[in-house]
Automatic annotation (TrEMBL), chains A, B:
This is NADH:ubiquinone reductase (non-electrogenic). The gene is LOC107416753. Keywords: Calcium, FAD, Flavoprotein, Membrane, Mitochondrion, Mitochondrion inner membrane, NAD, Oxidoreductase, Peroxisome, Transit peptide. Its cofactor is FAD. The lineage of its organism: Eukaryota, Viridiplantae, Streptophyta, Embryophyta, Tracheophyta. Transmembrane segments: none annotated. It catalyses: a ubiquinone + NADH + H(+) = a ubiquinol + NAD(+); a quinone + NADH + H(+) = a quinol + NAD(+). InterPro entries: EF-hand-dom_pair (IPR011992), EF_Hand_1_Ca_BS (IPR018247), EF_hand_dom (IPR002048), FAD/NAD-bd_sf (IPR036188), FAD/NAD-binding_dom (IPR023753), NDH-2 (IPR045024), NDH2-like_C (IPR054585).
Amino acid sequence: MYDVQVVSPLNYFAFTPLLPSVTCGTVEARSIVEPVRNIIKKRKGEIQFWEAECIKLDAKNKQVICRSNINNNLVGNGEFHLEYDYLVMAVGAQVNTFNTPGVLENCYFLKEVEDAQKIRRGVIDCFEKAILPGLTEEERRTNLHFVIVGGGPTGVEFAAELHDYFQEDLVNLYPSVKDLVKITLIQSGDHILNMFDERISSFAEQKFTRDGIDVQTGCRVVSVSDKEISMKMKSKGEVFSIPHGLVVWSTGVGTRPVVKDFMEQIGQGKRRILATDEWLRVKGCEDVYAIGDCATIDQRKIMEDIASIFEAADVDKSGTLTIKEFKDVMDDIIIRYPQVELYLKNQHLGDVTDLFKDSEGNYRPEVDIEQFKLALSHVDSQTKNLPATAQVAAQQGTYLSRCFNRRNECKNNPEGPRRFRGRGHHQFLPFQYKHFGQFAPLGGEQAAAELPGDWVSMGHSTQWLWYSVYASKQVSWRTRVLVVSDWTRRFIFGRDSSGI
Amino acid sequence: MYDVQVVSPLNYFAFTPLLPSVTCGTVEARSIVEPVRNIIKKRKGEIQFWEAECIKLDAKNKQVICRSNINNNLVGNGEFHLEYDYLVMAVGAQVNTFNTPGVLENCYFLKEVEDAQKIRRGVIDCFEKAILPGLTEEERRTNLHFVIVGGGPTGVEFAAELHDYFQEDLVNLYPSVKDLVKITLIQSGDHILNMFDERISSFAEQKFTRDGIDVQTGCRVVSVSDKEISMKMKSKGEVFSIPHGLVVWSTGVGTRPVVKDFMEQIGQGKRRILATDEWLRVKGCEDVYAIGDCATIDQRKIMEDIASIFEAADVDKSGTLTIKEFKDVMDDIIIRYPQVELYLKNQHLGDVTDLFKDSEGNYRPEVDIEQFKLALSHVDSQTKNLPATAQVAAQQGTYLSRCFNRRNECKNNPEGPRRFRGRGHHQFLPFQYKHFGQFAPLGGEQAAAELPGDWVSMGHSTQWLWYSVYASKQVSWRTRVLVVSDWTRRFIFGRDSSGI
């Protein structure tokens, strides 16, 4: 039985994948949040929650220093510290402006529920201001120019939501300015949604072009002022500025100061993101784990351990590996170094033994260490960082809680792969991410999706799939009912345009 | 056909009678608001809406000076002026602190939707702060002490909502501090709900006592600091202070600066509230009307016109009035001076002719001017100001729009009562308020109500009546559906305690 203490500056858990829907009121902010205390109440055991900001992690003394961020005049010292045996960091990431001047001051973001609420109010403000008497047409156009920086799933979904909001709702309420609205999506890469399959990218680009959304690819934003946004065309190197009414910055993931400070303490000061091993243990620090966007898994390279692997596999100490000897360790290798499986798949190799073929395609009966190195030399290039998505974070959370709950059990009967550089087995299987696919809603009741097994699906039916998947993924029955009734309400009454 | 222009600093209309329900999340803020543009769209004719604050009324040049209150960096001059032929003021009232020090800085209010949202967040903040480690029990108690100033319907309903919120929802989420919560209701009068029937007052007081809500009557608040509230017991004159976590100021109606400035211009500078005549025309200013909480009807006293009435009624110029002569003008008198009817009712006089009785109860055949004055001398004491409720404002709005739409029709065929001090008839009937009763929800699914015909109703069934009346009074079908589904959601899932 663990004594669990949860610290968070927000007393609710937000289902962030629906944040873009909140920006235009398709879904209400409250429908995607569940109070942490509600979630805790349903679990067995002693769990306590404190609404406070974690301001410092003290790895040496194993304690967390917290401060209440309630800013009114309530009495009592809001600062306290908690001691821990095990610490799980799941503080997420913050916006990364890449030090672009003016971004923090002049852009909206899409990280928190409050950000989405601010955008919603901001969009209506733009319309109410643009329609007032006494403005020139140019001024109206400027106020109704919505710029989105970042062509990833969030930026694209927000652009699509915004376009639907205009076309389906606002056009009837602000008829005199309806022809002055413009949406620009700025992407530094050559295509939007470039983490998706090419077919999805081009489908999205075509749909946006038809919708009149201006997609500027190959553009890097160099500064944002209160009135203008300046960018550089990568191809020509020329810098130009356009006036804007509202800019949403939806790109980049940055490390929070408290994590940065912690990294200094544990010797990761030179890294950009906190590193964990494959068991989600923070490197360089005992009993600290990290999941979600605040950390990244530093996958061990197979080439670093190649000599140990060879030695461990070479049971008869002959200095060469037979296919049988190799096969005996292969399962452990694939679990410990998942890049091997990815490599086999990408090279269209049916079986690991194919690695034993020589350049002419014939099986070698035995390989020596140099040949073994050569055969695996390209494997590590397949190592990939996991995306900063809720899907990854949720799986990591589940994985870690399972490990904690099987700690005693697995101490005696380790379930992990064999240790090549030591003895025995690892206590747990390393974390393995299962990609169940990813959606990109594109507006007009259409969506694109990458599904398991390299399936790609696009169009109206995909949007319905999106509805059902997102409804099923809600944290509680309460939010599920709320989200579905929000969608229904939107179908019947449209989106609300009150400036609150 | 009128060219209608609507100016408001908020682009939505809020159904304010449900504001107390928003403070605890029984109803969501968005469920009680309807965008002004939605309301306009459903009406025929040219109506334009501008989201701006009216910063000055210029009665002499017949124009309104407006300024957009959108504070971000959108381009364009947000200041403009509108010229009018007719002006209808419906700007409402602002909070009145009676110059009590510290109220503006340290209290929450309940006038606007945003006020209710702030209270909701504030209540949760108190709980989250009170439960943190390292506070003394005294500090926890202070943070969980909720004070409401004002024992009117709003204050009482809020106290009841808050009590329900604790008992039904928060008690399960914050079990360790549940015994430290205290609600205090401060009322300067001797009873809460003193505008209601006595039976309702005492029912409410008894229910609150059973619920553990501390009702402090006969107490006047003298100052509020960030940590304490000081008050004076009227009976003993002693001043004492109590520490608080949150204070809601729910008493007093004050005049907005723009109205105050306008009153100076038109010679009403010495009054506290803008005065209109019985046709809702602002006194001292042509073509300006005022409805709702921003003005009050200055009912003409019958004694001011008594000589003219006598003269007009005395058709044969005999110097005395016969009963028949009096009866002929009585209908016009009752319409012009509604206090007469109220007087007859309160004196239990069945008929106006009863006024002609002498002290022994016998009818006088005729009365002279002095006897006539005497008979009516107490009538004006029945003149009452209308309450500052949505019910009054809504009826005034309907009345005024009907007048505007019948302007030409009634020019030729005036519908109003006869003019005693001039010739002919008034163009329109004066505004007459119909009181349909008033509710006071008391928590725990109980309510009290004053219904037409001096009926009083209390208990659970009254709460269900409240639900049906409030559902039916919603501005649109959309908000009606939202409010009812919010109630349903509350029954099923309880109230949300997320701090957003």
